[in-house]
Amino acid sequence: MDPNKSTREEYTNAMVVMPVPEFASPEWKKYVQASQVLLDKLAHHSAMAPNLQQTYMTPANSKNKVYFEWDFVGRTLSMFYDVNPTLQNLSKQEKEKWEDAVGRTMFTKMLILDTSPGMLDMMTETTYPEQKGAHPDFGEEILELARRLGD
Description:
This protein has seven helices and no strands. It is mainly α. The longest helix is centred in the C-terminal third of the chain and has 22 residues.
């Protein structure tokens, strides 16, 4: 997939339809499947509408917290895909990538659920000052998916 030609929607669709091998460990399946569902819900949140048909490499029209989490979850999911799904005989690099991806998943959970005043809001405003005070709600469905991350 060419990030200069593929849209964010095409990227998301490719990431969420990757098959989970039958032989994958339950732990790997749990993290990958939860990330796939969350990535899809973030991509199709109304706050992502201005960004979804842009190519992956085009600067986002709206750099809001939903966009930030969509990008973060997508990159985390790609890290999971780089690890042997059996979680057996992992190389040092795979072990580190697995640990990083699990940590990023817990960070995602914390950022989405922290709503008062919200670390994610502050991070978004620091990086993109034009977002000051413009923080879309994730909605109950995404909040529920975040609550279940890692469980």
